[in-house]
Design a protein that fits this description.
The chain is of the alpha+beta class. It is built from eight helices and 14 strands. It folds into four domains: about 70 residues, no CATH class; about 80 residues, Elongation Factor Tu (Ef-tu), domain 3 (Beta Barrel); about 70 residues, GMP Synthetase, Chain A, domain 3 (2-Layer Sandwich), CATH 3.30.300; about 80 residues. Belongs to the Mu gp47/PBSX XkdT family.
């Protein structure tokens, strides 16, 4: 049976009645002291009820606040909350032979995200590639290949603008919702010495990894992982492989293969959007991304009806026609649907 916390007015009424009843008086005079005492006591009791309500919420991970949730994570999960990770890649610059690009030099993207050169390089020709990583950890540092980064300060013999490779590996710190879900999964599916759930849990303990799926073909165990909505980098895949391969985790008889799913971009053609405004288009695109994040899995079928339903849930959308895909979209083993393009017609 649910417990209803008394409201402040209810407490004032009840405590005043108790006080007056104890004093043996009838209706209190307008300026009598008893109702004043009753109101003060009611405020204090109301605060105690509030503290009790907060304390009760900390008793289980699903309702805990951030501080208590971190304490739960330290008990149930190896490593606790996953920290933010930094995106990395390369930057190719036009140079003259002999130019020196030193570690610590900064480059900035059009959106203001800054990157730092991680190793000094001396140019030997007209094009030089340096390793870079985002200065601040988080998903904001990820970007597609081919984007322009500009050096913050000039370097002799080096053009300021360069072309970046795909910058990947960045992930935000684990959210409370995601951390709570991992704790709940750990409680509901305790370690069993190498069951499928164990491999999923181990993969999700790795920084930046948010989803994992397991298939088996004895003696092989295949673990496919995703980093948010992005296909993980080779370095992330290798990190998961190394982590699960540790003697304290993977059973000695299993042959583990960690790999990234093959991206299968799902492109949409949408017509007759009502109302057809920039804000509604953006809301539809966000609903599409959320749907893919929730529904996509290696080898999974994207059902047409659920896709239409997801697009219809976009804020401000009244109606639309999904021209393509016109039916369910199937995927081969190892393929996963990813966010593609949206064509408006």
């Amino acid at each position: 049976m649910a417990y209803d916390r008394p409201t402040l007015p209810a407490l004032i009424t009840r405590i005043n009645a108790d006080l007056l009843g104890s004093l043996g008086t009838g209706d209190a005079l307008r300026r009598a002291e008893a109702p004043v005492y009753g109101r003060v006591i009611s405020y204090a009791v109301h605060g105690l009820y509030g503290y009790q309500q907060w304390a009760a919420a900390q008793a289980i991970p699903s309702t805990s606040d951030t501080e208590a949730l971190d304490r739960w994570a330290s008990i149930w999960l190896a490593g606790g909350r996953k920290a933010a990770t930094t995106s990395a890649g390369t930057l190719t610059l036009t140079t003259t032979a002999g130019a020196v690009i030193t570690a610590g030099r900064r480059a900035v993207a059009l959106d203001g995200v800054e990157y730092v050169v991680t190793g000094s390089v001396t140019a030997t020709g007209s094009s030089t590639t340096v390793n870079i990583e985002a200065i601040e950890a988080g998903a904001a540092g990820n970007r597609d290949a081919g984007q322009v980064l500009t050096l913050v300060s000039p370097i002799a013999g080096v053009q300021a603008a360069g072309i970046a490779s795909a910058l990947v590996g960045g992930a935000d710190a684990e959210t409370d919702d995601d951390l709570s879900a991992r704790i709940t999964a750990r409680i509901q599916s305790p370690p069993q010495g190498g069951a499928e759930d164990d491999y999923v849990a181990w993969a999700l303990e790795c920084d930046g990894i948010t989803r994992a799926w397991v298939t088996t073909a004895p003696p092989y165990v295949y673990v496919r992982v995703m980093a948010g909505s992005a296909i993980p980098s080779g370095a992330q895949v290798a990190a998961v492989q190394s982590y699960i391969d540790a003697p304290s985790r993977r059973p000695v008889t299993a042959r583990l293969v960690v790999l990234a799913p093959v991206a299968a971009p799902l492109n949409l053609v949408i017509s007759d959007l009502v109302p057809d405004t920039a804000s509604v288009r953006m809301a539809v695109a966000e609903a599409f991304e959320a749907f893919i994040l929730a529904e996509a899995a290696p080898g999974a079928t994207i059902t047409h009806s659920r896709l239409v339903q997801a697009l219809s849930s976009a804020a401000g959308e009244t109606s639309h026609t999904l021209v393509s895909p016109a039916a369910d979209v199937t995927h081969a083993v190892g393929e996963i649907a990813t966010v593609g393009t949206i064509t408006w017609s």
